[in-house]
Amino acid sequence: MYIETPSRLHMGLIDLNGSYGRTDGGIGLTIEKPNFKLYSEEAEKGITIDFCDSIDNDTIKKECITKIKSAAEKTINHFNIESGFYFKVDDAFYPHAGFGSGTQMGLATSKLITEFYGISADAVELGKITGRGGTSGIGIFTFENGGFILDGGHSLKEKDTFLPSAASVANPPQLIGRYEFPEEWDVLIAIPTGDMSVSGKKEIDIFQEYCPVDKNEVEKMSHLILMNLIPFLLEKDIEAFGKSIDVIQTLGFKKIEVNLQSEHVKNLMDKMKDFGAYGVGMSSFGPTLFSVFDKNNKSIVKETKDYLGDDGIVYTTKAQNHGHRIYK
């Protein structure tokens, strides 16, 4: 059995203030590339993980082994499964770069096991089992549904402290809205080189140091998403949608994420705007940057590539309006 998942752009956490009785909440977009491809078959016992020849990056391999093994063991224990499993990773993407690799790997592993035994379990249930979605539900719902996602965060009764997903034991949040993303819009991805990943204790410390964020900025962020970003998306107004993305970078926790980046990343954001980008966002803690474009400003692709040269990766992709796919 074989599964292929998308990746996601995490555009921002909405409320890391909590004054109104809820926290977290997020917006994000499912994208076609990069993706995660995993093959599995039943084994007599234990968990075995193999890789195709094209995957030779030790960091990617180590992350895959950790996430697949953990998700498999949790799923097997939860459903009292007695057999083992063999897994082979056919495609994977770099961890802690802003694409949500950990959630996709964990959910993909758990989904393959449950599908093999005919167990009905959606992504939210699998997220609970594997410990994903404790802060953001974007990875959960992009895996399941695709498209543009808005999640409703957590009640303070469920989660009363500010923590990243990897450190939170809260259940996945509620899905508020899932919207089709215009197929005619393209997505530019720019990943500057350098070790700027944020994870583990470093990520926890940032949440503890900078939260709660300013209440007024949370209110502005909420208004911007509800009355600008999503309506402009539905109206297919790409320029206004892009402007909303720009404003989001200046508010709440997203402002903190951007401010903590290197000057290299910040300069690239400014340059992409100079090249004609309608708006430039950073996914999660970066360093991945993104912009939506159309035929009227497609020159930003070449200009961004020329500017970064060998100092980063630039490519184009599309939004994906469906979730994972399983092949038997």
Structure overview:
It contains ten helices and twelve strands. It folds into two domains: 184 residues, Ribosomal Protein S5, domain 2; 132 residues, Alpha-Beta Plaits. The radius of gyration is 19 Å and the shape is globular. Strands 1, 2, 3, 4, 5, 6, 7 and 12 form an eight-stranded mixed β-sheet that branches. A four-stranded antiparallel β-sheet has the order 9-10-8-11. The model has no long low-confidence stretch (mean pLDDT 95). The chain has 328 residues and is of the alpha+beta class.
Average predicted local confidence, pLDDT: 95
Shape: globular
Give start-end ranges of low-pLDDT stretches: none
- Count of distinct strands: 12
Helix content: 25-40%
What share of the residues does DSSP label as strand, in percent? Answer: 25-35%
Distance between the termini: 5 Å
What is the class of the largest domain in the CATH system?
A: Alpha Beta
Rounded to an integer in angstroms, the radius of gyration calculated over CA atoms is: 19 Å
CATH topology of the largest domain: Ribosomal Protein S5, domain 2
Number of helices: 10
Number of domains: 2
Main structural class: alpha+beta
Q: Quick one: biggest sheet?
A: 8 strands, mixed
CATH architecture of the largest domain: 2-Layer Sandwich
Query: What string, H for helix and E for strand, traces the elements in order?
Result: EEEHEHHHEEEEHHHHHEEHEE
List the helices and strands and how they pair.
Layout: E1 2-15, E2 22-43, E3 47-51, H1 58-78, E4 84-91, H2 101-116, H3 123-130, H4 138-144, E5 148-151, E6 154-155, E7 175-179, E8 186-192, H5 200-210, H6 215-234, H7 238-248, H8 252-259, H9 263-274, E9 281-282, E10 289-293, H10 299-308, E11 312-317, E12 325-327
Parallel strand pairs: 3-4
Antiparallel strand pairs: 1-2, 1-12, 2-4, 2-5, 2-6, 5-7, 8-10, 8-11, 9-10
Helix pairs in contact: 1-2, 2-3, 6-7
